[in-house]
Description:
The structure holds two protein chains of two kinds.
Chain A: E1 12-15, E2 22-24, H1 27-34, E3 51-57, E4 62-70, E5 77-85, H2 88-102, H3 109-113, H4 117-124, H5 136-152, E6 166-168, E7 173-174, H6 175-183, H7 189-196, H8 206-221
Antiparallel strand pairs in A: 1-2, 3-4, 4-5, 6-7
Helix pairs in contact in A: 1-2, 2-4, 2-5, 6-8
Chain B: E1 4-5, H1 16-22, H2 24-27, H3 38-58, E2 65-68, H4 71-85, E3 92-96, H5 101-112, E4 116-120, H6 130-136, E5 141-147, H7 159-168, E6 177-181, H8 193-196, E7 200-204, E8 215-219, H9 245-260, H10 262-283, E9 287-289, E10 300-305, H11 310-319, E11 322-323, E12 325-326, H12 339-343, H13 348-352, E13 354-358, H14 365-385
Parallel strand pairs in B: 1-11, 3-4, 3-5, 5-6, 6-7
Antiparallel strand pairs in B: 2-8, 7-8, 9-10, 10-13, 12-13
Helix pairs in contact in B: 1-9, 3-9, 4-5, 6-7, 10-14, 11-14
Amino acid sequence: MLNKNKKPAKNADVVNKNTGEKWYYSDIVKDHFFKPRNLMLKEPKKTQYDAVGIVGSPACGDQMKMWLKIDKKTERVKKLKWRTFGCASAIASTSAFSEMVTENNGMTIEEALKIKPQRIMERLGGLPNRKIHCSVLADKAFRKAVSDYFRKTGQYRRVLTDGSKVIDSKLNITERDIEEAVLEGATNLNAVQKKLKVGIGSPEVIAEVEQLIRFYAEKYYG
Amino acid sequence: MREIYLDHASTTYLDPRVAGAMRPYFENEYGNPSSLHRKGRRAKEAVENARQTIAKILNCLPEEIIFTGSGSEAINLALLGTARAYKEHGKHIIASKIEHHAVLNALKALKKEGFEVTYLDVDKNGLINPEDVEKAISQDTILISIMYANNEIGTIEPVAETGAIIKKYRDSEKTPFFFIDACQAAGALELNVQKLGVDLLAVNGSKIYGPKGVGCLYVRKGIRPMPLVYGGGQENNLRSGTENVPGIVGLAKALEIAEREREAESTRLAELRDYFIGRILKKIPKTVLNGHPAKRLPNNVNITFLDIEGESALLYLDEKGIYISTGSACTSNSLEPSHVITALGRPYEYAHGSLRFTLGRKTTKEDLDYVLKHLPKVVEKLRRISAVRLENRK
């Protein structure tokens, strides 16, 4: 089995022309990179998947989109599909992550959330040091997608807030969620509420939400 | 596996004629040019012959050529050496935003020493405006650094025009000095320093089918940079250390061949280049040429493939035996995307998806057709993987 092989690879594939530093890509990384598993090849119908999450931006050099199909009773992840604008490490680690989450009937959401980047790295047989940051993209996209699932199923308490300040505590909507809504083009309360329903059940937070929308709209569209 | 090397701007192979010229100086004529005996004198003669060969090509005096250990060292000697020697005359330096890292990082070091640097913008094709140089010149300006041709996008800068402008501003001490980095230009463009109106010019061996680990700096007579390396006082006290005799012989031979074959080879390469660019832009949707369409090095093709990330494309092509480079962040030291592509006013995502193909002496149309067969498939596959669907904002 490929995933039991934890030996670091011997073959150096890329040498940085500025530093001469070698980048080692293991054979497992290469296998995932050239034959990525669970890719979303065709744009799916809305009803085909239960949740979706997007993180990153092409300007930063990486973006990840992830779709989930979840068994409502067992909360097992039955399908995990993805697409990325990213480097070899991002592609390989997401491919490996998608296998880990869905193999053997699928992990439960709670199990999958506990996967540490370290475990993806182990499965890949290691990544070059400077590429480790590329491997966390999968986990981030997964957390976004899981939060989307919790929202869509009305389990607002379980939405992952990841340290960001919670603005609407009934729906567990954070400052970061509002920032992202603005980034996606929602620059007034109406548009943001269409996306997030923020403040609909808690009118007392609306003033703060509007303030945040103004702040981020100024910041990104100034 | 068939291997197609399209990364000649990174480095070239050693021309067998150059290797032949170098060979005697490894095993037989290994003398130290500073030694007084015959073996030393013969080595000295080889170095001086090489100096003359290069001086002829640059249309300068032999004593105006200083051999160094690389192109980067020649650049550092030009910038650090001159700035430090002339700091009493002023502490202002002008450079383009798209200079090579050897220039940009040397200037960063000078900033820490109290120098001030004005960085000039380039237009959407990577050209500086000589009038901007004129506007930036002040009483305090001692040095101006503009690359002859850019290593990433191949744009050829209006060096002679800039040189003519700078001449008007020379004071009695002849500052500001005009330095050009010609490492990418050698073999493709004329290196006549009188015509170009430059005071300092750097060239190296590894881009012109010569040896690695050797370069040279032209220093106009009368200019005295401070050395970076102290020791036995070789190279007119400007660069100590026993001369790399085979390297120096090889550099001269390589430059001689490059100069002799320059016109014919440039014509051949420019035709291949334009064929390749034309086919890619036509065959593959959402592609944008980076750099000037005409004022560009005959061997340079730099194209952004929207929605894909450069490192992935590089590695997919590598698997097909096609060797290229990219301006993507993931292959750079700083994890920042190419400063050259972003200086063109293009968004970051254009830099992340930029691929550079640089042709060479052995590149044939068949090679390019092989790439044209595989490249669209690679791009298509990576676009299917990609989470991004950018609009072409060209």
